Amino acid sequence: MAATMRSTTTTLTKLLNPNHPTLHLTHPTPEPFTWNTLIIHRPPSSSPPPPPPSLHLPPHAPPPRPPDSYTFPSLLRSSSPSALPPLHAHLIHIAFASHPFVQTSLITSYSHHSNIACARRVFDDIPNPDLPTWNSIVSACLKAGSLAVARRLFLAIPEWNVVSWTSMIEGHVKCGDCGGAMSLFKRMLDADDVGMNEYSMSSVLSACAGLGALQQGRRVHGYICASGLRVDAVLGTSLVDMYAKCGCIESARRVFDGMGDGDRDVMAWTAMIVGLAMHGRVGECLGCFAGLRQRMRPNAVTFLGVLCACAHAGLVDEGREYFEAMQGEVAIAPEIQHYGCMVDLYSRAGRTEEAIGLVNSMGMEPDAHVWGAILSGSGARADARTCEAAIARLVEVEPVKSAAGHVLLSNVYAKMG
What pLDDT, in 10s, does the model give residues 381-410? Predict the structure, then answer.
């Protein structure tokens, strides 16, 4: 009976709209699993949040059963930064805070809101943390950029698993220490009983890409093939990205073409498009983008790659069409990077007035890249007034880059005599 009810509940939550003002539960004594499923499948809170639904139980039904240890992790994951400490206090009050599953969720939830101090306090209060809890606190420290602390905690773990190694490798890559990530990978290969998976190998490939280490990347690719790991969406995308960033676009293309249609998701297509743009293969880049649009919806990074390709090739009209299609057909709001590409595109083509007009209509504060593009374009046209204005704004945004701007301005004055 319980198994049937659980299956039915899981199925219904896929069809049920939890924001509906009334939810009807016909079972006389819903077990905790039912409530947990409804909580898990409730959509993320919106702003402002919808009013909570009224739950109608059968007449004369006994009070609902108390929550279990699987109820609160879902609540913790959906809690706002201000709601998390009171919920934590309630867990302590009802003696649920010592459950390993809850403790791990507390650490993860605090780190998600960048509250590493509270995450560390939760961990330090655990007498004998299990491996998932160790991995959670290591990941929390890495997410906060505390690489040294994460290393100390990692070395204190009694026994590492693939999650432990993957977290450390990925954390080193995100902190910019790709060399350290590769050293960890070599140690991981020497460890006993630690099997690689697609996520650990993806992190290693990211390290190779960050170092521009083509030969190491090829060896990792060979290891993937020899170990029997399938080049799925995760590994395929990482391989395409690695080969492109290491200067071997042909190998990137071979990996991409060898992926199955089901594995070429938007991330894989985007990696190929950005790689082609990076190598100046504009025609292939735009052709690849057309192939993507026939199959699925591009994302913001996809458009960024296409706009960069147009900027480097001087394709002003095409770039403007893509920029307008991104906002209109695909309904993606431009970010500062997209505006930067368009300003660069106009500036390279000598259309400084259009570039400045776009900057004035952006609705966000221009960054150093935007003003640098204006400066470069106006410098090429010996437009001293626009150069001076761009340098003044560049000094405000990023003073370090303004020195090169002053050199460019002096060259403009020299051209003007």
Answer: 777 787 888 888 887 877 655 555 555 545
Percent of the chain residues past pLDDT 70, beyond the cut:
77
Please give the residue that has the higher pLDDT: either 237 or 398: 237
Under the banding of pLDDT at 50, 70 and 90, the label for residue 66 is low
Task: Say if residue 78's pLDDT is above 60.
Answer: yes
Give mean pLDDT, residues 200-205: 95
Q: Are 381 and 412 in contact (CB under 8 A)?
A: no
The domain segmentation of the chain, as residue ranges, is 180-262, 265-333, 338-417
- Rg of the chain over all Cα atoms, to the nearest angstrom: 27
